[in-house]
Write a structure and sequence with these properties.
Elements lengths: L1 E8 L6 H9 L2 H6 L3 E7 L21 E7 L5 H8 L5 E10 L3 H8 L13 E7 L7 H12 L3 H4 L4 E10 L9 E7 L7 H4 L6 H15 L9 E9 L3
Antiparallel strand pairs: 1-3, 1-4, 2-3, 2-8, 4-6, 5-7, 5-8, 6-7
Length: 238
């Protein structure tokens, strides 16, 4: 099995709210083309209050993502044929997914489960990572996965955490990415840093965790290169 992540830009005319049913409606066609574990993530009105929590450095920030698994990436052309007509632009990446710390995830995620096709509570923060020039690939990977990774759950309110290492791009000329990180936050984190850092009603703890997070992520992220968006998540099938 291989995981593919598509970065998506919507056509000019429809709003995100109008675009959403079109993307969600692709489920059956994608399944027939061999896809499973399909997840759609959209920057829509439900996460508008989290605008200040986004970081964008691309000239035209992406509007959403599509994540799916295939038996083989060789099936990608059929997926592209289905999705491309609903976008103004798309890029695709073959990734290696890691979903670490299952005990923490299972303990937190149970209360946020919803039927397939419904909106997952809260928001999915998606970060597109580039290796800083100052680091070798090995240094960057170690700082991200081994230095920072264990801090994600203790410092934040996340109930889902997927580390996607980019293997290669599947679309010609796609911007270079080294990783795509998905983090599921609860509803109280939308536009609320205390909710984001699991410190509701505790500004001192929030400030300490925010500083610790910055110090950790700055070891492997150049913040003038990263794109980090807040999205609504829809798990269409497993």
């Amino acid at each position: 099995m291989e995981k593919i992540m598509l970065t998506l830009w919507k056509p000019t005319q429809p709003s995100a709210e109008q675009w959403r049913p079109d993307l969600l409606g692709l489920r059956d066609e994608l399944v027939r083309a061999g896809a499973n574990n399909i997840r759609v993530m959209l920057a829509d009105d439900a996460v508008a209050a989290a605008h200040a929590q986004c970081i964008t450095n691309s000239a035209v920030p992406l509007d959403g993502l599509l994540s799916l698994w295939l038996d083989s990436a060789s099936q990608w052309p059929a997926i592209k044929k289905i999705v491309a007509p609903l976008t103004s632009r798309l890029e695709a990446y073959l990734v290696l997914e890691s979903e670490p710390y299952p005990e923490e995830r299972q303990a937190r995620a149970a209360q946020y489960r919803v039927p397939l096709g419904e909106r997952t509570p809260g928001m999915n923060q998606v970060a597109l990572l580039h290796k800083p020039h100052r680091l070798s690939y090995e240094q960057w990977y170690d700082a991200w996965r081994n230095g920072h990774g264990p801090k994600a759950y203790p410092l934040q309110s996340i109930f889902g955490y997927r580390q996607n290492t980019v293997v290669r791009s599947l679309t010609f000329g796609a911007p270079v990415l080294h990783a795509i990180v998905e983090e599921n936050f609860p509803p109280e984190a939308i536009g609320n840093q205390q909710g984001f850092f699991a410190a509701l009603g505790d500004p001192d703890t929030c400030a300490k965790r925010q500083q610790a997070m910055y110090e950790s992520t700055s070891q492997f992220i150049d913040f003038d290169k990263i794109d980090c968006i807040q999205t609504s998540q829809y798990q269409l099938c497993e």
